[in-house]
Write a structure and sequence with these properties.
Blueprint (H helix, E strand, L loop, with lengths): L14 E7 L8 H9 L2 E8 L4 H7 L4 H4 E4 L5 H19 L1
Parallel strand pairs: 1-2, 2-3
Protein name: VWFA domain-containing protein
InterPro entries: ECM_Assembly_Org, VWF_A, vWFA_dom_sf
Length: 96
């Protein structure tokens, strides 16, 4: 786990995960996502093409409007980059 001190994680640095998926998970993702959020890790979810939107909303940290993104194809990732970057940077500022 990259977010543990023994792996080099520092307590004074915000922890952020950006998940990118193009489908529905075959595993339970809700429990691990909740454990990450409970540990203070901020989760952003990006769905591509046939990603399960309900699953993305359940994985991501609130609020959904800044933490959940959908694009029709990987080629459209650049279309969300500015908004995603701004959301991540704003959240880092809030956490510091």
């Amino acid at each position: 786990n990259s977010f543990k001190a023994e792996s080099g994680s520092r307590s004074d640095v915000p922890k952020i995960v950006i998940l990118i998926t193009d489908g529905k998970s075959q595993d339970d993702v809700l429990s691990p996502a909740q454990r990450l959020r409970d540990a203070g890790i901020e989760l952003f979810a990006i769905g591509v093409k046939y990603a399960d939107k309900k699953e993305l909303r359940a994985i991501a940290s609130p609020p959904q409007k800044t933490h959940v993104y959908n694009v029709p194809d990987f080629r459209f990732m650049f279309d969300i980059m500015e908004k995603l970057t701004r959301s991540v940077c704003e959240r880092i500022s809030e956490l510091n």
